[in-house]
Design a protein that fits this description.
By secondary structure, this protein is α/β, with parallel strands linked by helices. It has 14 helices and 22 strands.
Length: 471
């Protein structure tokens, strides 16, 4: 078996890992690269393999850095099946449509400029037709049910286990029979955390021979998930006392629902004033509806609150906004409020407008609750948190970052160093022949590799993009 690392190699976006088994090819994830626009544009258009040669895709979850390039795959000739959980399929349906809409709008804007200069026009990465085509290829399977995938003559079986990262997220165990030899390969996708709100905790996938493991926070330790409500309470009360607004960049899937859940509990306990809360993202609205129909993924606490009639994903003080005109009205509000908007890394969407209108006011707070990749606006905000007045470019114009920038990493949905090590402790290190660290920046991967040595897991590889390993 050969593994070709086609994305999320020494970086956290563009997850794509190609397996060649008995001469046939299987792709784990098909994520979109995010970061420097020109570089990402080129990488997303050109795969390190021929899509027409793939026998299938096995998808860990719906986040765009794991699923966002599936329509391009279809556009370039892929005609086989995409395997995922049911919740991942439903989320991909809305997220890929939203991504296609953004592609088309961005290209319209770029082409207006290029047309005026007489330059060749660009085509969008993919269109709604490409999304509809790839969605017709999805086949959904439940957690913990072993199944054989088509095209491999009953030689490759897959089992999804709950990753506890976002709704429907899965770790993937593949039982591979090649030339009479059986090998078990595991892929963590994005591994979640214990005690996160709403979702069940991560499940152990069982022992494997080889493991492709995420390493996003391989050298960092989060604050405990249990303290997120208290931290959110403190930020809200401090900002409200100053008379300011709270602007929250949040991924439409996962982070938005978690913070709404935490707010619902704080309001129920009367721990914070009842200020207006606006979720200003059409995708977040649609994603929340999908959360409501997949209660099989909820943990015991969330299920109990629902049974008691508590609206864990919204209350009278939480308003979901789709309409553009309603979104613009938020700029005229005079009293303190919280605006939760996408995109999570501040690279596109309505959050850019809310940042532009609020970042210069020292009464306001920009609340960061998720990972910000290199070269994104979100990362520049994180880097500016200790230097008030730093100039931040939004829509080509520079604004002073006078607002307080607060980071609550207790909201992170990625396992931290200690949580990753706890997961690794469940493996029999004598059976684990090699670990490949993916989906992490190099410094985090190197720190995780050093920590794994303390668990007697010494055969750890950090592949680069395009590298091929034979196992």
């Amino acid at each position: 078996m050969k593994i070709k690392f086609c994305g999320a190699a020494q970086t956290v976006t563009g997850s794509q890992h190609l397996l060649e088994i008995n001469g046939k090819k299987l792709l784990l994830d098909c994520g979109m690269f995010q970061g420097i626009r020109e570089e990402s544009f080129k990488m997303n258009r050109k795969f390190l393999f021929n899509p027409e040669e793939l026998s299938c895709v096995v998808l860990s979850h719906a986040h765009i850095d794991h699923s966002g390039n599936l329509p391009t795959l279809s556009r370039k000739g892929f005609e086989e099946s995409v395997y995922s959980t049911a919740a991942t399929r439903d989320l991909c349906s809305i997220m890929l449509q939203d991504s296609a809409y953004i592609q088309e709008r961005d290209i319209e804007y770029v082409n207006r400029k290029r047309r005026r200069k007489g330059e060749p026009l660009f085509n969008p990465l993919y269109t709604m037709d490409d999304v509809r085509n790839i969605m017709s290829k999805f086949k959904s399977m439940p957690y913990r049910r072993r199944f054989f995938i088509e095209g491999f003559e009953n030689k490759v079986a897959v089992t999804f286990h709950d990753a506890g990262h976002i709704l429907g997220s899965a770790t993937i165990a593949l039982d591979i029979n090649e030339n009479g030899k059986t090998t078990r390969l595991g892929f963590t996708g994005d591994l979640g955390r214990f005690n996160l709100p709403i979702l069940k905790d991560p499940e152990f996938m069982g022992n494997v021979d080889y493991l492709l493991s995420e390493s996003t926070y391989g050298g960092r330790v989060h604050e405990k998930a249990e303290v997120m409500e208290k931290q959110l309470q403190d930020v809200m009360n401090e900002t409200i006392e100053r008379g300011g607004n709270i602007i929250v960049p949040a991924f439409s899937v996962g982070r938005t629902q978690e913070i709404v859940y935490a707010l619902s509990k704080l309001f129920a306990k009367q721990a914070v004033p009842q200020i207006p809360i606006f979720v200003d993202s059409p995708l977040s609205v649609n994603a929340t509806d999908i959360y409501r129909i997949h209660m099989e993924c909820f943990d015991e606490e969330a299920s109990k609150l629902v049974s008691e009639g508590i609206h864990i994903l919204g209350s009278d003080t939480i308003t979901y906004i789709k309409d553009v005109a309603e979104s613009k009205k938020l700029n005229t509000l005079k009293e303190p409020c919280m605006i939760i908007s996408a995109s999570g890394m501040c690279e596109a969407g309505r959050i850019l407008h809310h940042l532009k209108n609020n970042i210069t006011n020292e009464k306001n707070t920009i609340l960061i609750i998720g990972f910000m990749a290199e070269h994104t606006l979100g990362r520049r905000l994180v880097e500016a948190r200790h230097e008030p007045g730093t100039l931040i470019k939004i829509f080509g114009d520079k604004y002073k970052a006078n607002a307080k920038i607060r980071i609550l990493n207790s909201f992170s949905a990625h396992a931290d160093k200690n949580e990753l090590l706890d997961y690794y402790r469940q493996f029999d290190e004598k059976k684990l022949k090699k670990v490949f660290l993916v989906h992490g920046e190099l410094d985090q991967q190197e720190m995780l590799r050093d920590s794994l040595k303390e668990l007697n897991i010494c055969k750890v590889d950090i592949p680069i993009r395009g590298e091929v390993k034979e196992v």
